[in-house]
Batch of 4 targets.
Target 1
Amino acid sequence: MSSDVLAIQNAEAASRPWVETLHEWVTTIDHKRLGILYILYALVFLVIGGIEATIIRIQLMRPHNDFVSPQVFNRMFTMHGTTMIFFVAMPILFGFANYLVPLMIGARDMAFPRLNAFGFWLTALGGFLLYFSFVGGSGLYGAGSAPDVGWFAYAPLTSRAFSVGHSADYWTIALLVSGFGSISTAINIIATILCMRCPGMKLSRMPLLAWLNLVMAGMVILAVSPLTAAQIMLSIDRYLGGHFFDTQAGGSATLWMHFFWIFGHPEVYVLIIPAFAFASEIIPVFSRKPIFGYPVMVAATICIGFIGLSVWAHHMFTIGMNSYANSFFVFTTMAIAVPTGIKIFNWLGTMWGGKIQFKTPMIFCIGFLLQFLIAGLTGVMMSVAPFDWQLGNSYFVVAHFHYVIVGGILFCLFGAFYYWFPKITGRLLNETLGKLHFWLFAIGFHLTFDSMHIPGLLGMPRRIYTYEPGRGWEIWNLIETIGVFVQGIATLIFVANLVLSYFNGPKAGNDPWDAWTLEWSVSSPPPVYNFASIPTVASRRPLWDLKHPEDPDSHYE
Amino acid sequence: MACLIFAESAIFTIFVVAYLFYVGKSLSGPTPREVLETPIFYTVCLLSSSLTVHVAGKLLERGRRGALLLLWVLTIVLGALFLYGTGQEWHRLIYEHGLTISTNLFGTTYYSLVGLHAFHVTAGLIMLSIVLFFGLAGRVGPEQSSRVDVLSLYWHFVDAVWVVVFTVVYVLGR
Amino acid sequence: MRIVETMQKADWPAIISRVVGVALLIAGVLLAAGLCTATPPDNSVPSIFDSHSTPADSIRHLSHFVLGITGLIFLVVFSLLSYVVVKFRRRVADAEREPAQVYGSTQIELAWTIIPILIVVVLFLATARVIHAIQDAPRPAEAVEVTAIGHQFWWEFQYPKLGIVTANELHVPVSDAAHPTPTFLKLLSADTDHSFWVPQLAGKTDLIPNHPNGTWIDPHETGLFLGQCAQYCGTQHAKMLLRVYVDTPEDFNAWVRGQQEPAKGGEKEAAGRHAFETTACLNCHAITGTNGTGRFGPDLTHLMSRRTIASGAAENSAQNLRLWIQNPDSIKPGSLMPAMKLSDADLDALVRYLETLQ
């Protein structure tokens, strides 16, 4: 019945002028469309950030290379980091949250649909501002362009004295603006989850994706604000003559570091927790078992949220804090490994005794498990402060965080694409291309990021546009660059899959994966009102109960 | 609103931390002890405005629109008085003592923290005025109680922040 | 028979590809480990595992312990993952029924909570011990004291008690376990953040303006040790290189005496000295005995005692000196040395003068 409605909608759509469709998309407040807008926006910036990474890697392919000047190189790594974190990872995760959370909790939309749109357009404006810096950032004597202060913009490098022109201001304002967008969306997610669950869906019956996005949103609220505050302070320094970080006036460069990392560390948990959410939905379905230890998974995530607010100075082990402060942050950082490790074991426990189907979403999640394990262990290595005094600020760190973000978050994201693309568009992505995408990307990923640990161990610091020959770094840098091209090809295959399947993919139907959460009970794509009538649920897997009336979950929970 | 208050509290906390961190560290210029005068009267104004806005909300629930408008105007007046007081203090600091945001660390942290608060007071006054405007046009009744409550909550937050700022700047910081 | 049946039903291509993948992974790891630890004896590869100084040694020992634990955890979890992926794959014959729906197990979850907590406690205690050992190490009376000041994009080294000011190349005496003579460095910055990192001698410590830091090295082999700035400080962060010469006590004392002497060569190369003193050179550079007392750039009094110029960016040769003065951007684009735009005659004279500054 809902497919008839869609047929009518599609027929109407075919005859409408494209201007009207565009207008509809630009003025939409529907969570599903905003979710898609966030995701498409992020994909565009993913390509741009990828090009920046490719430029970096070509320059570093051999020592004393002159592919780009040092000034351009410094802009590239700054823009690459800033783009990937703020205009790829955050929007794409907000996009999926936007699309999925109302559907999974049985609601018709988010709590504040117009605030939702406001949040998206603020984020979009932020990205535009950041890239406008290439044009508008020039200052005295043509100095300044895109920001070149690194994505964490340490003071006093960002003061007027050392950053001429407006490049640092574009960094500041772009992130300030998109920060307000992030806070808006986080408020929306929290209000939606706390107030708009369907009847019967107690908090303890919510899908894990909803729980984890709730924790993520709470962290955004507490974590983005310190960055906002610090950026206001930086702007006061740069434009009103303030001295917050002006070391010549007695100000403190380390104060910026503390404020930034009080944001920066929870931020990475903001990024990984939604990725955990995807894995927690996909792994059970393709193992054909419920998630192992649901209550502990929730508790562990909340623990990660709290402890994550107390570990920030492990980014600052080398700045000369006293041994007691260093030891404190060693302890909290190691402590956070415990709930994180528990989650890995719970996912393994979910797969144990199951009947695993190696469809594309699942193999990406298996890759995630392996890679996140390694990433977590290199993180534990760096939590050992003396070891970090060697490893910190070197390519070992760069390898570690790319392992988490690319090997962990991006792999889960790819899994999420293959899993939910049928729901969003009504068509399945091609399995063969999917598997090709996975293997090629995995090979490229490991070529680049496994190798990258080694120059770090051999003394190569980060953020250098070139390096001396004869230090044993050349071969690894070359291999890393080759891996980038392999990943690029894999990504192109992915994009091709998206486009081809959108037009020609097999029809998915409501529930192609035989899954158990509410979004699979509606048509693909869902109608604009989501549910014809708001469902009532009695367990964590309402569709399992429907499909197995003789053995419903509600008997066991 | 509760979430927004959490977020804003985090922002204010960072400014308070910066203020406390830099107490006594200015390399030059006027110190807090030399130039600050405790703004008791204006603080009382602001804190009373919390009371008036609270009572206004309660009366609105009972349908007393007239009383609401009166108390609402009083709230705005008290809030505006507070802003006037801040402005007066800044005028004195700048012209009599030469303390600006760029003078020294005290100047920077003081004007930022108090200024951030004053900005939030201003935003609150604008929102209160919008509600007043609709109230005068007869559009605010008991059905809008919950929305008025949300705005009241924001106003209470602004006052609570002032209690913290007051303590940090005029009590602890000297 | 069960075994034969299982073997017949198994999905061989997948299993083989997985095993090959694992084998490659292990091979890669071993290869990498071998390559890492096998460094040439001439210290050209600044590996953190090739430590030659007490703090770097402590870190290395701790790292072995940490790598052992994390390696073990990796093997256990990786084996579990591989086992699960092979053993619990869906077999075509059995595809219809859903497996047993297990929701959790308190005992198992307790076990895999408690064991990691114990590991964390052990790791923390081991770490805290080394932190204190390095950060709170006592300073013996015979320690050499150096003040390192980070600049954009070069290192200033002062030996306050010896009256020496030099740049970019640090000389320290080798330290003997019986009579230790470590070098304690006070770390300051003249502009933005930098970081002093010579991996074979110690972990890195940052140089932050208005925030004095300290570090120490206790080298027990002589030789040249390489490092570089490890905190992004601007355009030429990449070429802010470090060279630490660990000398025998005799060589160190000879070097000190040489550095303490006033500048030579002024009389013989009067034209060059005149060029130095009448152009903007002396705004930034100091040479004892001349009017030059600038501190923005490196002290040139004993320029020829250094093997490199521009903080390691180029070898200290007449040709490079000439190039550096006329067009620094050709060696280090974005450095704060201005192109001096001297006439050829002045330039030649100046270079000849500088070459006398032993």
Target 2
Amino acid sequence: MKLLIANRGEIALRIIRTCRKLGIQTVLAYSDPDRESLPMYYADEKYPLEGASPLETYLNIPKLIRAAKQTGCDAVHPGYGFLAEDAAFVAACEENHLVFIGPSSKALEKLENKLIARATMRAANVPLIPGSEHPVRSEEEAIDIASKIGFPVILKAVYGGGGRGMRIARTLEEVRRFFRVTRLESLSAFGREEVYVEKRLTDPRHVEIQAIADKRGQVISLGERECSIQGRHQKLLQEAPSVAVGDDLRQRLNEAAKRGLAASEYTNAGTVEFLLDSSGKFYFLEVNKRLQVEHLVTELTTGIDLVEEQLKIAPGSGLDISQNEVHTTGWAINCRINAEDPRRGFVPSPGTVVRYQPPAGPSIRVDSALFSGYSVPEQYDSMVAKLASWGRNRAEAIQRMKVALEEIEISGVPTTIPLHHILMSDNRFIQGDFHTNYLNEMLPSMNSYVARLEEFAVVAAAIGKTANPTRFPNQQTMSQGARWRAYARTTLMTHQR
Amino acid sequence: MLRTYRIQVDDRSYVVSVEPVRKDRFRVKLHDKVFEIESVTAEENPYWIVKFGETTVRARTRIMSNDRVDVYLAGLPFTTSLLPVGPKGYAPPAQKGISGEIHALMPGRITSILVKEGDEVQAGGPLLILEAMKMQNEITSPVSGHVKSIRVKEGNIVKKDSILILVE
């Protein structure tokens, strides 16, 4: 197999690592801003996509197919995001005799968009959340449906995924306001503007089943993940297993997930997402028809390399593990670290990482393409690192994560690290008592934590200034004489008793 | 020797006194709190271990200009401006009102402008949509007033901090 990687950043690097282990040749398709990026160091070959915007590069099907053909690839891994769940891309791969590492176009048709997926699941007797069965065409229609099913509602991009293209509306006015924004966001992110309306459950948990299905009809579950810690509809912290799932519920979730995937004639790695209410009832949310950001927690609890399984079964081989051979051990937690500013409502904040130092230690895993001096591009997703820990139990995984969060250094851009610091010491999080809205409830304590950090920052600023009163190392403007005087002054200052 | 600074972060002001204790050790007073600081590197952007009570925070500093020091800690950057304070005390910081100048919080592309010049807007009302890192960010007005001028067009790529709209 020779594999084209149609993605970037940490997931491109993640895939390359498994390929290097298996001796599979890799070709990395890259955009202009990604010319200097870590996966470029490890891919066997590189193919320039020329351009910066996603539409010119990682969303450009003809360019990617050309890249695969010209470099003699026979398979394509889409990673996640971009074209990972794009039926046209899968079809283009199939037409060009390229093995797509993911579901077949037949399975994608049965799950083509959120509305079709709901119909497929309804037929497979998987419980659904109340909502519209057709795309909503106008503000008026959206308002009409929202009034019928009751507030709050979620406006969702029919073709959306990965937490993008979704807005919660609590009033008629908000439905009107967000309808346009959601359509625009959907158009820009997914190339389609259709939106539908779904009921928003009150404070549910988000649990999901990671499954793998081979082309011979075998579907196995690798257990659940708990992804209730969310902000801006994005999973910020994920764990496996879930404190809310006992053996009986786990079995029912596994069965519903397998039933849904079988009905979709699904193949390769996939995740069935559910919302779980406080009474233990669960509802189908969506199928993620790809590898997921949080797949690493499942890898840590099962010991299975999901990318390796994906690559093995994509050409048609059967799974070489059976359901009985899947054993989960201990507990894993993943913190998603985004270049976003928690002080300003988590706005994406691209910029240069002055210094990066990853943590390490027993059962710590970091998936990242960061390095000191890396410039986080503004064109793409804000995720810069995934920091995961494993422990024999949840308490140990939390302890290890706490230490790792203190150790990781990402200097230069604002990140979501403070949020994870807070979570690791938060009583409700430690007790497992939280839901998908919990992060919003926690924001006041995060703000006071950040205010305390600012005191440490001004103290450090005063010291930094005192230690180097006239030295501007980052500007290189000082004359030799001035440097001499600065050195003398610093020495006097710091050596004085 | 004691050095005192007035340090500004956004619109917040702090008075900080630094006292060297011995080589690589300092004591810093911030209002009524005393922090203990240890230096562990001598590289271009030095690294500091800052202790207050039970809490230890590790920080890196970067001197950007005569009066600006950037600090990185716990995954956050802080931009600080420093003024040395003499024995005669310091001038209180100028009161800054909320401005109706709307700046780009991040670099990105203007996908949609929702108002025209002369429109009346309420504080919190939507002005335009700025796309950055795949997200559509609704930019709202910090003040109530009229749209005085719009400095961008739909489709424009804007730099961080550039002025987008003036509301008066």
Target 3
Amino acid sequence: MTTATSKPEAGRGAAAENRWMRAYRQMVRIRLFEEQVNELYTRALMPGLAHLYSGQEAVAVGICEALHIGDYITSTHRGHGHCLAKGASPDRMFAELLGKEAGYCRGKGGSMHIADPATGNLGANAIVGGSVGIATGAAFASKRLGNGRVAVCFFGEGALGQGSLYEVMNLAQLWKLPVIYVCENNLYNEYTHFSETTAGTILGRAAAFGLESALVDGQDVRAVDEVAARLVQRARAGDGPAFLQADTYRYSGHHVGDINREYYRTKQEEQHWKTERDPIKQHANWLLTQGHADAAALDQITSEARAEMEAAVKFAIAAPYPSVDQVEQDVYA
Amino acid sequence: MPERELTFAQAVREALAEEMRRDSRVCIFGEDVAEAGTPFKVLSGLVEEFGAERVVDTPISEAGFTGVGVGAAMTGLRPVVDIMFGDFLTLTMDQMVNQAAKAHYMSGGHWRVPMVMRTTLGATRRSAAQHSQSLHAWFSHVPGLKVVLPSTPYDAKGLLKTAIRDENPVIFFEDKMMYKLKGPVPAEDYTIPLGVADVKRKGDDITLVATSSMVQVALGAASMLEKEGISAEVVDPRTTWPLDEKTIIESAKKTSRVIVLDEGYGRYGVTAELAAVIAEGAFYDLDAPVKRMGAMHVPIPFSPPLEDVTVPTEQTVTEAARQMCNK
């Protein structure tokens, strides 16, 4: 196991500067996307459930910045961040969230099932741990077909309770598959602190299978990117799977309707993460102190992202629902 | 030249070998599928021809390797996943029901899961309650899955080849007791479409709609009934989904009496569905209520005299048909 922290000198040079600015932009886009989701949900414009990714942006962005467009990801019920970071367009995402035909799944999947072959997104999954097999299978196919693709399996620490995770980690290590299991430890299995559900250590579980494993500060996008780049490279080179524990925090409740949270966590704790550990603020400070950007440039990124999200929401609200005769389409291929 | 005969097991193996030669994307996952060729020896010789990269022995992790099959199918392979005993399907349910069955629909038609799960069904092998069940009704219940129940070596080869070429997840149930059954199987390539029933025997007085293991039972009963002057028609749906309702209803209308036979449990099972199809489609042509015969509502017992009474036999079917025909 290794513990990754970003080095102060990481990211020097013009190309790197663009990369870190891009990472900033991606995190801001995710944050503002989720603000719109919250708004849509609370205004009763969005049906169903909304599980917000706010607070965890550095994990999705740090990892996906290390991937190619053809690489695969599997995602979770808290999947908007992964989806955007892998390259999906917010307009079609919002359309999907509203059940519109223009959505990525023609309205049939919704927030918890966005999938997009064009960006290698095998799909968000509403079964906790439900996609661990799919990601591992994609890695098996990549290896067998020799196409050099890597699969990243995102899951929360709640999925550590699912036995199938350990089955596929065993398979992946036996078969040296190019898959990276990314455990986003946001501390809470829904409404229960992970310490109440998780015996031993998280990385100890990966170590038991001999997986290359690492722990990273999931609020530090450069640290995540650095360790992801290494794990992706070794997977692509045929050196086998890896397990990454990214410690992070979920700003909102389990879902938007989870308002009164004091029975499982304090407001002080939430405030601490938001003020002291925010991935966007931390990265902004780094960009400013390193001289990669000035405040105006960062503000511009925010206003561009806000305009993009507002336009995307408008598009989705105006988009038509699927016609009812589509209900039986695509049950079978 | 006499027709070539193969056992049911040989027919399954030949279908797999032909499809693996034809399409390099086809691969097999499962427990003891390689050198061991499964406990039933159905896959013997495949690893020697196709190598361990395509005939892949897995750990005893049904959920895990089924999930791997789903993901591999979505991303360019055509896996055939081997679940040694149908009873172990319980371990794969999330992968099959929540993942494989729904990936195409939930993604708005973008992802496909062209995968086959081969498994077994059937009691009377003295294997007790956890190695004897026939659980195909569960999968027939779920939109997005197709369910195949071959009853002869000929059907096994033709249906399995079709299943492998299908773009959807298909569960292929093989009756363990039928592996040694011999029958004519053409050496050449042929396929049988899913959703087309086969009238295994023509008759006029009563229809026996039978699936999988129950087809041979129905044919045996039909021979016994013939001696008593009762002409029984045996209709084998061959797939529970898609289901050839038309052939079943036509036969019911023709004979006006129907017994539905299936080795799964009757309660909320395949026989219930088939009986409902017949009631809806042929009600005014029936001279008697549709009779259902399936496994008794008990966990399959080990003790041979107990086990033997849990499933329909030629004798019990003959007796039921005789009563229905008032003879």
Target 4
Amino acid sequence: MYQEQDVLQEDLVEKFHPFTEILSFFRKTLVITELEVRKLKHDPTELFTRAIQPALWMLVFGEVFSRVRAIPTGKFGYLDFMAPGILAQSVLFVAIFYGIGIIWERDLGIVHKFLASPVPRAALVTGKALSAGIRAISQGIIIYLLALVLGVHISFAPLSILGIILVIIISAALFSTLSLIIACIVKTRERFMGIGQVITMPLFFASNAIYPVAIMPDWLKVIAHINPLTYQVDALRALMLIGGTSMYGIPFDITALLGSLFILIAIAAKVYPNVAK
Amino acid sequence: MNKPILEVKNLTRKFGDFTAVNSISFAIQKGEVFGIVGPNGAGKTTTIKILTTLLPPTSGEAFTGGYNVVKQPSKVRRIIGYVPQLLSADGSLSGYENLLMFAKLYDIPRKEREKRIKDSIHFMGLDDSADKLVKSYSGGMIRRLEIAQSVLHRPKILFLDEPTIGLDPVARETVWEYVSAISEQGTTVLMTTHYLEEADAMCSRIAIMIRGSIAAIDTPENLKLSVGDKNTTLNKVFEAYIGKSIDSEEGGNYKDVSRTRRTARRLG
């Protein structure tokens, strides 16, 4: 199998240019994403089972609360108000348990092989984060279908759709990287599930997903304002609904999300090698 | 003697109070098949993890392919292939996809990629199952695929951690044949094992490792002579070095045992 004794890998050791390094980083990131997407293609059942929870929130919680009119949602009906919140929530739920896969791969030995390869750690982490983004888009499609059936006033302007896709990918990448960091620190499934449960609900309730920040007590407002989910919901609400407006401005929302994402990826690239130790 | 392709000097690794690797030194020449044998918990896997840049040493130095594993890890990673003890092929991908993804990650040029993958599938005797999910493979097939994956980029040094653990005797011998073929093509191999007949059959030199230290290091023939009988088995040599009280030495801790059994079950 070694007909041509090539010195390819050695050549690559010698070559080092910042530009080719950056190009190579993006290429490797996309290969890791491709790998995850191929796995999903072989077994997409997960995508469908994940649709059940948001459906329950929309059909049960949403329908009931739109009847009691307890929450001041301005010019929108409660279902309109809540649909982008539930989209954000289901993105969060898909992404926040993503780290369990890392623990699984660690127990098998797959992680060890990747870490002994020349792929930059940050590319391994970013590739996984992007693939979480792609998974989350399927959630977006499901919520759009549900929302259509329930008569939510959805905007189908091409720019809005593009914006929604972008926000979904960035936020799923953000929360899945947070999840990966937790997995790299706790290293066992049991502890990971415990922490995952503990942080999910506070993230969700300390945000503007199902009620506006304005009605919160002051201490909760502070938390809501450092919670990335708030900015995700704010951007989604502006983009998804006809006549939707943003509280903080879409550019600010996206900057806040991207900023958090970069910080988390830097941390994740640092702690990721710990899983092989 | 030429400059060794792999060199370890006073290498030590501690986990808290426990010293997993205790000031070991050895050197491997190009083209060797070097075996580290020893009971569970002897420090074999820890040594491999340091040499493959997965774990930093507590003290001492290690050079893999001439590169310092602590200071030049990315250069080391380019020239090594690594098959971990645990199961490392991805069960939710096909055999072909497992190879394709690694070919891409190792920058094998597009025009050469397909040919190399095809050749290695053929070499490892996986032609009929290349497009099936690895979940459906037998233990021996998985190991062959993992080895194919680890040499796709033509590494200078191949690390095999317990390559035949949990395999039946037939599958084990097949793995031996493939590793020998890879070695004949010029790749240096460092493997760990606790099957002594395996070390005897494959290795040009063997280090016997006990409780983090190297008790002896030589060719299989010389090791046998050192206990006074060239016709003896390596088992006897091993017993002579390790002492007869196998009970107190062997087994590792609860974690080792559960991990080994789990690997064995997955592969078997």
